[in-house]
Automatic annotation (TrEMBL):
The keyword Membrane applies. GO terms for biological process: mitochondrial respiratory chain complex assembly; protein insertion into mitochondrial outer membrane. It comes from Cyprinus carpio. Residues 1-25 are annotated as: Disordered. This is SAMM50 sorting and assembly machinery component. Residues 45-125 form the POTRA domain. It is found in: Mitochondrion outer membrane. One of its GO terms (cellular component) is mitochondrial outer membrane. Gene3D superfamilies: membrane protein fhac (3.10.20.310), membrane protein fhac: a member of the omp85/tpsb transporter family (2.40.160.50).
Length: 426
């Protein structure tokens, strides 16, 4: 049986009675000549030593499991295949930047005529890496900072910290990951996090603290939610704290006609319509939490209304609803006179729209007919026109002139120019 050496070695010279080969340079699936392949496959060899060079803080015992199959190879083709598989397993650990493989004839006093030495030259990742990026959502943005410590204790452990600061939400999380030696998919992980969200339309702040532990296929998660409202006189939602509250929350989005093209006056038009809906059913006697309810209104849903300013409200604060629907009909056309045709101007479109929707709470003593009747009453709707700018294939910007209709007492409207940015629009 061969031995594993964790010292750094230069690649052995390609000389001797056998052929020195670079594993990554060989085409394992399609040898150039069938006769040569047959000779290599039938040539019995013995892997005498496996060397791992370039180790620093990595412990050699974690690597023994990943390269053990190389010793079981019986011919040169098999050696190359198993060496390549071992290289992939080493990279999968996430602790090496690069892994190179050199297969050469065995040397030394114990060298056999058909003996081979396999050398893995590795380059470890730095002790600490950082990242910075920005994220854009529906009328919100955030800055994300990350810090990662790979191979913390030398056995492929990973410690990760992430901090996010946004216009509506601030969060940070700490996670620890440790694989089981020889079984990377059987790992142990612990995650701690805290998320604080601001709901200015409801004058409240929600803080979620959670911890989750996962081992192999079993996961345990605990979440503590605290909802704070500085307006103590608002009886609709006093201070709330829930641990593991259960709800059945369903939402659906249907594109009835997606990018239906009409050729009108030899200019390509796009007609699009969509329908949204959702329902929240508390599982038990407790009422639904204000933070779990649906909200409607704003430049990404029912345009012409302020952000989440449709539906039940108390003293100027919007409480959301347990059921809602919203629909939209849109016509997109090229800009008049086609400025920037064939270049930057193709990212812009003229936008004509008609939106409608409603939101309310459920009375569980009433039947489905009464619920449908509520959703059909006091429908808010709006229409208007504007300009759309596509940002890649993900996000877009809209600048619309909106005319809100069906306005009810307490609704906040945006009668006139309204700007929206996001990744999902009605």
């Amino acid at each position: 049986m061969g031995t594993v050496h964790a010292r750094s070695l230069d690649p052995l010279p390609m000389q001797g009675p056998e052929l020195g080969l670079q594993a990554d340079d060989m085409d394992l699936g399609e040898p150039e000549h069938e006769e040569k392949q047959e000779v290599l496959e039938n040539k019995d060899v013995v892997v005498q030593h496996v060397h791992i060079g370039g180790l620093g803080r990595t412990k050699e015992d974690i690597l023994t499991y990943e390269i053990a199959d190389v010793f079981r190879a019986k011919n040169l083709i098999d050696v190359m295949k198993k060496s390549h598989e071992a290289r992939q397993r080493l990279l999968r650990l996430g602790i090496f930047r690069n892994v190179e493989v050199v297969i050469d004839t065995a040397e030394g006093a114990d060298a056999l005529p058909n003996g081979l030495d396999v050398t893995f030259e590795v380059k470890e990742l730095r002790r600490m890496t950082g990242s910075y990026n920005t994220m854009v959502g529906n009328n919100e943005g955030s800055m994300v900072l990350g810090l990662k410590l790979p191979n913390v204790f030398g056995r492929a452990e990973k410690l990760t910290f992430q901090f996010s600061y946004g216009t509506k939400e601030t969060s940070y999380g700490l996670s620890f990951f440790k694989p089981q030696p020889g079984h990377f998919e059987r790992n142990f992980s612990v995650n701690l996090y805290k998320v604080t969200g601001q709901f200015p339309w409801s004058s409240l702040r929600e803080t979620d603290r959670g911890v989750s532990t996962e081992f192999i296929c079993a996961q345990i998660t605990g979440i503590c939610t605290i909802i704070y409202c500085p307006k103590k006189h608002v009886s609709s939602y006093p201070h709330q704290m829930s641990i593991g509250s259960a709800y059945l929350r369903c939402a659906w989005y249907i594109a009835l006609v997606d990018k239906f093209h009409l050729l009108i006056f030899l200019v390509l038009q796009v007609l699009s319509t969509s329908l949204w809906g959702g329902m929240l059913l508390p599982l038990g006697d407790k009422p639904s939490s204000i933070a779990d309810r649906f909200y409607l209104g704003g430049p990404t849903s029912v345009r012409g209304f302020s952000m989440y300013s449709i539906g039940p409200q108390s003293e100027g604060d919007y409480l959301g609803g347990e059921v809602y629907w919203a629909g939209g009909l849109h016509l997109y056309t090229p800009l008049p006179f086609r400025p920037g045709r064939g270049s930057f101007g193709e990212l812009f479109r003229t936008h004509f729209f008609l939106n409608a929707g409603n939101l309310c709470n459920l009375n569980y003593g009433e039947g489905p007919r009464a619920h449908l009747s509520k959703l059909a009453e006091c429908i808010r709707w709006s229409y208007g026109a504007g300009i759309v700018l596509r940002l890649g294939n993900i996000a877009r910007l809209e600048l619309n002139y909106c005319i809100p209709m069906g306005v009810r007492s307490g609704d906040r409207i945006c009668d006139g120019v309204q700007f929206g940015a996001g990744i999902r629009f009605l």
